[in-house]
Amino acid sequence: MIAHAADLATSGSLIPERPLFGSSLWLPPPASTAAIEVDWVFQFIFWIDAFFFVLVTALMILFLWRYARPRGARAVGGPTHSTPLEITWTVVPLFIVMAIFYEGFRTYMESAVTPGNGYDVQVTGQQWKWMFTYPNGYVDENLHVPVGRPIRLTLTSSDVIHSLYIPAFRLKKDAVPGRFNKEWFQATQPGEYQIFCAEYCGTGHSDMLAKAIVHPPGEFENWLENAASYASRLSPAEAGEKIYHIRGCAQCHSLDGTAGTGPSFKGLWGSTVTMSDGLKVVVDENYVRESILQPQAKVVAGFQPVMPTFQSRLKDQDILDVIEFLKTLAPGR
Amino acid sequence: MSREDPRVPHHFESAEQQTESARLGMWVFLATEILLFGGLFCAYSVYRANHPDVFYYGTQFLDKHLGALNTMVLICSSFTMAWAVRCAQLGERRALMVLLSMTLLCAALFLGVKAIEYRQKWKHGLLWARKFRAEALERSPTKAGATWAETASAKTTMAAPDGQPTSGPAASNPLTTGTKALAATAAFEDRTSIPPAGTAPAGVVSGKKSSAAKPSERTPPENVQVFFSIYFLLTGLHGLHVIAGMLAIGWILRRARRGEFSSGNFLAVDLVGLYWHLVDIIWIYLFPLLYLIH
Amino acid sequence: MAHPSDNYLTHTRGIKSWLLTLDHKRIGIMYLVTILGAFLLAGIFALLIRTELLTPGQTIVTADTYNRLFTLHGAIMIFLFVIPGIPSALGNFVLPLQLGAKDVAFPRLNLFSYYLFVFGAALMVLSIIVGGVDTGWTFYTPYSTDKARAGVIPVLTGVFLLGFSSIFTGLNFIVSIHKLRAPGMGWFRMPLFLWGLYATAIMQILATPVLGITLLLLIVERVLGVGIFDPGLGGDPVLFQHFFWFYSHPAVYIMVLPAMGVISELVSVHSHKHIFSYKMIAWSSVAIAVFSFFVWGHHMFVSGQSAMANMIFSALTFSVAIPTAVKVFNWLATMFRGAITLTTPMCYAVAFLSLFAIGGLTGMFLGSLATNVHVTDTYFVVAHFHFTMVPVGVAFIGGLYHWWPKITGRMYSEKWGRIGCAVFVAGFYVTFVTQFIMGTHGMPRRSYHYLPEFTALHQMSSAGALAMATGLFIAAGTFIHSLVKGLPAAANPWGGASFEWQCPSPPPHDNFTETPPAGDPYDMSDWEYHPEIRGYVRKT
Q1: A177 in B contact zone (CB under 8 Å)
Q2: What gap in Å lies between CA A82 and CA A63, rounded to an integer?
């Protein structure tokens, strides 16, 4: 079953709940180099907008009050055209929007040029899960990065379009199947920041959450080394549980018995399940392996054949770990 | 208010105003038709700009002779249609009927030739993307003698035999985590099998051009099925317009037989004529764009 | 003033005389009823959405139902209310009257286009509900072609038919304006509402066919798998977005331009003053129509489009701001030294100005590349979009009040009309200003669940939505009350000088017994108020 956004946040899984208006009414506190620049443009446009809104509204109210007349009255009259006025209110806004365009463009271009000394992370969106692949091949469900170093993201999707959105970094980029989008950022503050999916992608769109975890100087490398060695550190069942979480199984297969997009894993091991073609199958090593590598071969009755293949994405050892994990969920254990 | 002709609807001042309105309306409608095709021409341009090799390669599987024949047939039909309008204007009912029938015949001939072409494509599996069978490239008559076995070994980044491309930006990506081709049989039957993360095909605007940018007739480029998709979309939509045109011509032929037209009242013939010329003109563009790519 | 007993409502009787009518006025009324029905439906869906969002978790419906609800709300509001509202309902009724014509150029096509609309609408709504389509009104690939249910095919077919209905209406309007203007009515003697409709019709002709082919491609993609948009088959999903927005961005102005035309009428007539700078307003409509075709890429700044394309689209986007600003300033200048009666239509006109100003100004954040990246696809966009689209609805209701006496021959309660307007606008501000704040704080749109820190703002927004609904119910009440108990309306209750005020209310079947002489449509000095008939009469 999908982890609900609300549950995730209230259970305080990663960050304590913080008040919405940390530093300003309009924007969350900036946490990347680009965010500070973007906020400046935001304020620039905001005050121009505020001026014009007050101007238009004030004139409107003034005229409504000043020229209110009973029905049947005649207008005092006045000019019906004024070339100098028309030129003024065409040219002045023109220069203002040109200024706004320039500021927005300048700031955007500064962050559009990817620095050469960046650290690469590959981002894959999949309904409804983010996967972050580090250079050593380790895959994590959260984006861990060192502070103060440019991070280069390469985004793609394995199904529909998603969009990686980190409000604190003012960063958003679509993950499009069939292409690789590039984006980069440099975090300025250690801490944990919310990641959303900003492009509608189906049932679990709003649950496609993750965290951007910015490590203080020197700690990131240790974390990565430690995290990547889970297979040797953990028992096979524990490693299987980790794979269950980081590789996206958890999005569709619950552990508490509720049916999601796929059957729950609770009590699945060793049980006899009925396939959509009426065949009865005992859940054993061979069946689990086949279901991971060729998900369409046998589909449990009542479910849609929508699972993607994990062929070439999970190694044999990973599958064995998952099987060990499933055994811990067998009935009577 | 003077009424010259009782057949003029009440909201028009005169028959002249009615004719002018109807003509303008038809021209505006033709503009929308052009824009309808415009979308497809746009798709054609985008894919041709990004995958020129696909178009150079795909075009050799189209039969230029049949295409040229069809072009001639349609030009003839345009000629008979224009003549028919002239006859309607002169009030020559018999000639009008003969010419409309000839136009109808040309249109039917066009569709017949098109049907032969479609049949060949169907037989060889040269169809739109999902139905496309890549091994057809080997079987169908082609100037290039390359077979799939040869090309697959010659070019490692080549599309897998099911047409599922395995190259693309991923090939150069250092982070790719074990990229292998999917099982050859799975990809087309089974739309849910997703390419492994990082092995999806090159996108159109991703900045990376398709691997082989120079024209190549010998090796089938990846994504060659896109050419046939566009071929079927363009000719299919055009075919539907030919059928619509035939219905319209049939309708005025019926009215002509009843003697409803005269030298003062041939608006419908005129409008159908305009429509039929548009259908012809679109084909005049389609023929070189699809058949005569060099 | 004695009403001529024969008007378009009493000309013929029986249900058949309505269903098969070729009279533009009756067709306009049939559109009006259909469109108001769609509006009610989409409004109910909006309230369900706001109810669901009262709590961060599940409140009343499941995630899948929620996704269908916002699809329904968006698709119905856009395709069945905002796009056809002003042109098809008000435009059909008013356009021939303002031209001094007896009907539109092709009355049969007009009726055909109405039935195409009804059929397409029914197909779309029913198949979203039955087929469980949850793609959003934007139908982005590959979600719509790969993952969404098969019901998406009839939905797309429905929208395709609606598109053709829209094209035929536009074609009819273009030909009518070109060929049926009364003798002596030059292009610059047309009421500005007609300029708005003309610019709209041109855009319908140029943009809607592209939507048509895009939807056809989606259908073929879904049924046959042609692979144009499918990355698995060599296509490009972002190409769909280019196609879609090539129509749908101009479509925003297809919705807004007629509204601007209505506002030009309302501001001038209810200020009893000649419109300020007629030609600038007319040309700015044309300028908006032209510019709007070159800005579609601003919907794709974060899709991976090249920086060069982003720069060009951003710069072009700002160009649309200029003619819009020109219009706003000209409307204000029209009010200056006028004789403003704060009638209900005028209330809606100033509500339009206030709301649309915010809609336009917040567009700056979205047009600017740096800030767009942060706020796109969030509630900021939702709020911005509603601040531009709801004013269209506001103009529609304002226009309906304005022409109501002409359409029905009856007056309505000004007091309750004004109250309804005020409640609606206040509710609107509460609903959507809160959404701006949520957006800048990173709340993604189309979200079923949300983080608990957004709860208070979401609840405020929902409360505002309830107020909006209340305002609309009050407005509906005034219309129903008017039909039952309204006082008879004069031929010219507002003192307007365009043609539609020079035929009786309601107009006879043929509109004009004699086409009035064409003059300046905004020169109201010849009209004098007569309190005993609650209307204006031309000085003799």
Answers
A1: yes
A2: 19
The answer to whether C228 faces chain B, any CB pair under 8 Å, is yes
Residues 6 or more apart whose CB falls under 8 angstroms from that of C320 comprise C288, C291, C292, C295
H-assigned helices in chain A: 5-10, 33-66, 83-112, 219-228, 230-233, 236-246, 285-293, 316-328
Q: Does C442 touch chain A (CB under 8 A)?
A: yes
Task: Write down the pLDDT at residue C267.
Answer: 95
**Stretch B166-193: mean pLDDT, rounded?**
35
pLDDT tens by residue, B117-152:
888 878 777 777 676 766 656 544 444 333 333 333
User: What pLDDT is recorded for position A332?
Assistant: 67
Query: So what's the ipTM on this one?
Result: 0.90
User: Contact B229/C213, CB-based, under 8 Å?
Assistant: no
Is C179 close to B237, i.e. CB distance below 8 A?
A: no
- For residue C286, being part of any structural domain is answered with yes
- The kind and range of the H/E element at C364 are helix C344-367
User: What's the CATH number where C232 sits?
Assistant: 1.20.210.10
Contact across the interface for C306 and B204, Cβ inside 8 Å: no
Is C430's Cβ below 8 Å from some Cβ in B?
Answer: no
Domain total in chain C = 1
In a domain, C10, yes or no: no
Neighbours of chain B (3+ CB pairs under 8 A): A, C
User: Is C150 at the interface with chain A, CB within 8 A?
Assistant: no
The domain spans of chain B are: 15-133+223-292, 136-217
Q: Is the pLDDT of residue A3 over 70?
A: no
**Residue B156 pLDDT > 70:** no
The model's pLDDT over B270-284, given as tens digits with 9 standing for 90+, comes to 999 999 999 999 999
Classify residue C34: in a domain, yes or no.
yes
Question: Please, which residues 237-266 of chain C have a Cβ atom closer than 8 Å to chain A?
Answer: 237-238
Residues of C in contact with A203 (CB under 8 A): 63-64, 67, 134
First vs last C-alpha separation in chain A: 21
Structure tokens at C108: 């049969």
Q: Give chain C positions within 8 Å (CB) of B32.
A: 167, 171, 205-206, 208-209
Chain A contacts in chain C segment 306-325 (CB below 8 A): 307, 310-311, 314-315, 318-319, 321-322, 325
pLDDT tens profile C90-149: 999 999 999 999 899 999 999 999 999 999 999 988 888 887 788 888 888 888 887 777
Q: CB distance B31–C206 less than 8 Å?
A: yes
**CATH 1.20.120.80 is right for the domain spanning B15-133+223-292:** yes
Domain extent for C98: 15-538
A92 has a pLDDT exceeding 70: yes
> Is beta strand A151-157 parallel, antiparallel or unpaired with respect to A181-185?
antiparallel
Q: Is residue C374 part of a domain?
A: yes
